[in-house]
Amino acid sequence: MSVKIKIENLYKVFGPQPKTALKMLKEGLDKEEIHQRTGMTIGVQDASFEVNTGEIFVVMGLSGSGKSTLVRMLNRLIEPTSGHVYVDGQDVATMNDEDLVKLRRKTISMVFQSFALMPHMSVLENAAFGLEMAGVDKQSRNERAMQALEQVGLEGYHNSRPDELSGGMQQRVGLARGLAVDPDVLLMDEAFSALDPLIRTEMQDELLKLQAKHKRTIVFISHDLDEAMRIGDRIAIMEGGRVVQVGTPEEILQNPADDYVRAFFRGVDPTNILTVGDIARQTQVTVIRHTGEGPRAALQRLISHDREYGYVLDTDRRFMGIVSTDTLKNLIDSGGGKDISPAFIGEARAAQAGDSMQDILPEVTARPWPIPVLGEEGKYLGVISKNQFLRTLQRNHLEEQQA
Ligand SMILES: Nc1ncnc2c1ncn2[C@@H]1O[C@H](COP(=O)(O)OP(=O)(O)OP(=O)(O)O)[C@@H](O)[C@H]1O
C-alpha cells in the first residue's frame, strides 16, 4: 500500500498574528483561551495522518471542528500556518505558484456541496469547466467531459442547463466536472449533503462503483456517520481542530478514542433499544446436530454449503460450540471416532438473547464467524454477523434521522 498524501503537524490559525497564537499553543494555552485573549481562531491544530493511494478517506466531525480547513490545506485553497502536506512526496505547503497551479489542475480536483455550477452554461460546458481552466483545447475537453458525464449516468443531458436538472443530477454534473480532469486525488466537501436521503444513498453507491473501476484517492468530508461508514475505507474524526482518531469504521466502532468519538456512535447506536435476540437471524449457517452426525457427515454438510465453520447443536437445539472444516478433517484423519465435541473451537462464545448490542460488539468484530445467540435454556436462536450488526446500526440511525 503506497501513501498518496501525508500531512505532518499541520496547523491553521485564522487571524493577524498566527505565529503568536502558535507560540501560545506551544506554551500550553488552549484554543478557547487564545481566542479570548487574541481573537484569533485555531482552525486546525497539529494534524498528522496518511492517506493511502486508492482509498476513500473520510474526514468527519461536528460543524466547526476544522474539516473544511484541513481539506482545503491539501490543495492550499487555505494556506497552512505551519506543518507539511506531502502529495506524492512533494510538499504542497512550500510549493511555488507554478507547481501549485499544476497540482490543482492535474493532480487534485474538488467537488463541492453547492455543486458550484454556472447557470448560463450547458451541462457539457459545466463538466468541461475544470479542463478549460487547465487550458485543454475545446475538442479534447468536450470529449473528456462527455466521457465523465457518461460515467455518472448523464449521457444525453449534455445540452441541458443546470436548472433543468434535479438536485441529484446537478450533483452528478459537479462530480463529472471533478472526474473529467482525471485527477489522482478527488477532494469532496460534503458533496452529497444537500441531497435527499434516497438520492444521497444512490450517489454514494455511484461513487463506490466508480471507485471499484478506477481507484482514485478520495478525501471526503462528511458530518454524517452513516455516510462515513458506508463509503469510508478509513475515517479521521476531528474535534475542535484536532484529529482525535483515525481508523477503519470497525476499528473506531470497536475502540473509540474518547467520549467525543463515542458520542458520535451513540447517535447511531441502537444498543439501548435493540437486544441481541432482536437481530439474531437463522440464516446461512449450517447447523450440525451433535448426536448421530459424525465428522464425515458434518464436513460434507459444511462443504456442500460452502462454509468454513459450522454451529454444533445437540438434539434439544442447545448450542455446543463451533467446528471448522479443518478441525473436522483432522478429526477424520486421526481416526478420532464419531464424536465431534472434542474438536470444538474453544473461543466460540455465544451471546444471550437479552444482551445489548454493545455487550457483543467486541465479539462480533473480533471473530471470523457470526456470533451464535442463545435463548432460554441455552437454545440456539440464530446468529449475528458483523455485517448484519453494522447494517442494523446504520438502519437505526437513518430511522432516527427521519423521525
Ligand atoms: N476564514 C476564516 N476566518 C476565521 N475563522 C475561520 C475561517 N474559516 C474557518 N474558521 C474557523 O475555523 C474553525 C474550523 O472551521 P471549518 O469550517 O474548517 O469547520 P468544519 O468542520 O468544516 O465545519 P462545517 O461542517 O460547519 O463546515 C471554526 O471555528 C471556524 O469558525
UniProtKB/TrEMBL annotation:
<keyword id="KW-0547">Nucleotide-binding</keyword>
<dbReference type="InterPro" id="IPR000644">
    <property type="entry name" value="CBS_dom"/>
</dbReference>
<dbReference type="InterPro" id="IPR003593">
    <property type="entry name" value="AAA+_ATPase"/>
</dbReference>
<keyword id="KW-0029">Amino-acid transport</keyword>
<dbReference type="GO" id="GO:0005524">
    <property type="term" value="F:ATP binding"/>
</dbReference>
<feature type="domain" description="ABC transporter">
    <location>
        <begin position="29"/>
        <end position="265"/>
    </location>
</feature>
<keyword id="KW-0813">Transport</keyword>
<dbReference type="InterPro" id="IPR046342">
    <property type="entry name" value="CBS_dom_sf"/>
</dbReference>
<dbReference type="InterPro" id="IPR005892">
    <property type="entry name" value="Gly-betaine_transp_ATP-bd"/>
</dbReference>
<protein>
    <submittedName>
        <fullName>Glycine betaine/L-proline ABC transporter ATP-binding protein</fullName>
    </submittedName>
</protein>
<feature type="domain" description="CBS">
    <location>
        <begin position="340"/>
        <end position="400"/>
    </location>
</feature>
<dbReference type="InterPro" id="IPR051921">
    <property type="entry name" value="ABC_osmolyte_uptake_ATP-bind"/>
</dbReference>
<keyword id="KW-0129">CBS domain</keyword>
<comment type="similarity">
    <text>Belongs to the ABC transporter superfamily.</text>
</comment>
<dbReference type="Pfam" id="PF00005">
    <property type="entry name" value="ABC_tran"/>
</dbReference>
<dbReference type="InterPro" id="IPR027417">
    <property type="entry name" value="P-loop_NTPase"/>
</dbReference>
<dbReference type="InterPro" id="IPR003439">
    <property type="entry name" value="ABC_transporter-like_ATP-bd"/>
</dbReference>
<keyword id="KW-0067">ATP-binding</keyword>
<dbReference type="InterPro" id="IPR017871">
    <property type="entry name" value="ABC_transporter-like_CS"/>
</dbReference>
